[in-house]
Amino acid sequence: MKESLESYIALNADRYPERIAVICGNECCTYAQLNSRIDEMVAKLQSSLPHSGGVGASPLVCLRASASIDFLVSYFALHRAGFAVAPMERDMPSATFEAVEQELSRHPIPEGTADVLYTTGTTGKSKGVLISHHTIIADAENLIAGQGFSHDLTFVVNGPLNHIGSLSKIYPVVMLGATLVIVDGLKDVNAFFDAFSTHLRVEGIPARYATFLVPASIRILIQFSADRLAALADRMDFIETGAAAISQADMQTLCSLLPHTRLYNTYASTETGIISTYNFNDGRCQAGCLGHTMPHSHLFITEQGTIACQGDTLMTGYIGDPERTATVLRDNTLFTSDLGRLDDEGMLHLAGRQDDVINVGGFKVAPTEVEDAAMAYPLIKDCICIPVEHKITGTALKLLVVMLDGHTLDKRALALHLKSRLEPYKIPLLYEAVPAIQRTFNGKLNRKAYMNPSF
């Protein structure tokens, strides 16, 4: 095992100098070129620093995470020069960026730190998570073993590179000397689909493609570009999803569109790293299943029913916040708020977050279960189940839905649909059609935005 991704880039520059490392728009870069550009930037970094301080004078650098080769060159060069990197939202206001820089400068950086990644902050203040070089390599090896990344793979990244969902896919690609294609989100759906037509070849073998898509993006593609997805069936090796729950209806549709493609649902977070994965295109299509743990990870279910993770992929801690770190990371174990269970095969099943569970008349309801049942209703585009104060029952379930264009909400029909799939206490009392459901950038339901409504 090499000690860093940058070591693998240098190795692959020798092994596969002409292999395409990165493609972004009309620009491409071989491994030899990528390594050379990194070295050139390292030299500039070293010459620009005061001689008295050397490279170690500024251990952490904030960097806007643009969808570009330049970002990757800067990211890898800073690591190679001895810096830790804090990848930030590329469109973050300058005042906010400078405030984060100032705050981070107050805290010591543990030796071996590669990145400080910020969480989305949907359940509270965003937290800076310390990720080591060792953790990055462990995450890469987990993905290689769990999902079959290989040297002849071309991986299309279309999400923000300042969060683990997309950033972590760079790890195994670089380690194996495979090819990365960077697409700037799904704003230009043509550019996304064009990325799967680069026709790269390795020793005469047609390129095999893969990508990562959050569930919200999968739903958009299913609704508006199902035929174009189906056309990728012969070249799409696998798709990974995660970051939020994917409905069983969408899982089944994706399986039918891509019958021979491996479709992975992965359990991962900024704090835990990449833990487990499940190919739901296995003929069973189990909703909520997140599969077996990968080589560098272990998990168990606590007495409270929550998931606890162990292994080499865990964060080092929250930067500048040892008290908060101690609440979740103890004895080399990361205690999450995710509710889960292990089945007879040892596979993990997720049942939502402990904080999200709604108490209705003494019954515990996971809103994700209600939402999954609702998403199987053919006229619903999106939804969220929330608790509301009710003058008679105390707490009631309310379902907010976005209907497909041209359709109106039939509350009775939807309630009957849910009655056929859920226990009586899980069926919402209230229903409302809304123009949109608030989500975070990576497709998670923004439950915080719906706190404390009343009826």
Observed structural traits:
455 residues; single chain; 14-stranded mixed β-sheet; alpha/beta; 26 strands; GMP Synthetase, Chain A, domain 3; globular
Mean pLDDT, nearest integer? 90
Give the number of helices.
Answer: 12
Strand content: 25-35%
What CATH architecture of the largest domain would you give? 3-Layer(aba) Sandwich
Q: Please indicate the count of domains.
A: 2
Provide an overview of this structure:
The protein has 455 residues and is α/β, with parallel strands linked by helices. Helices cover 30% and strands 30% of the residues. It has two domains: 5-350, ANL, N-terminal domain (Rossmann fold, 3-Layer(aba) Sandwich), CATH 3.40.50; 357-450, 2-Layer Sandwich (GMP Synthetase, Chain A, domain 3). The chain contains twelve helices and 26 strands. Strands 1, 2, 7, 8, 11, 12, 13, 14, 15, 16, 17, 19, 20 and 21 form a 14-stranded mixed beta sheet that branches. A hairpin with a 2-residue loop joins strand 9 and strand 10 (205-206). It is globular and about 70 Å long. It starts with a helix and ends in a 22-residue tail after the last strand. The model is unreliable at 50-57 (pLDDT under 50).
